[in-house]
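*** Query protein ***
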Amino acid sequence: MGKPLQYLAIAGALIVGLGVAALYVLPRNEYTGLLQPEDADAVAHGKVIYDETCAACHGANLEGEADWQTPKADGLMPAPPHDVSGHTWHHSSQLLFDMTKYGVAEAANLENYQSAMPAYEGVLTDDEIIAVLSFIKASWPEDVRARHDALDAATN
């Protein structure tokens, strides 16, 4: 290979390397999170799954169980609401996904924590979990969704 071709090969490798590095270093203009609350198909699919799988505990209208902040007689916490009156939007999308897939104790690294919330690994696919969480997020007002997006951006 002649000198001009060597220089071109080196220059090309440098350009590719700088481009890849820029993906990690330069700020992005728009955060794209794990959840898809603007995707009407994902939200509709998530609602169907939520109604079948989650509503019995978390409520048909995302309202959760009564007195959800007070342990029940068995010591377990009631199912919290997923609307803005609850704390779902206080958690990152990744943590919500992990709690749904693996269970609260494993996702939150709380070895001895007991929860009535089952793990859905092997029950729902990752895409189905994302659809359910997208449905929940789509129900929140725009300002709460924006705050949740900011939380996701800060934790990713």
Notes: The chain has two domains: 1-30, 33-155. Residues 20-31 have pLDDT under 50 and may be disordered. The radius of gyration is 21 Å.
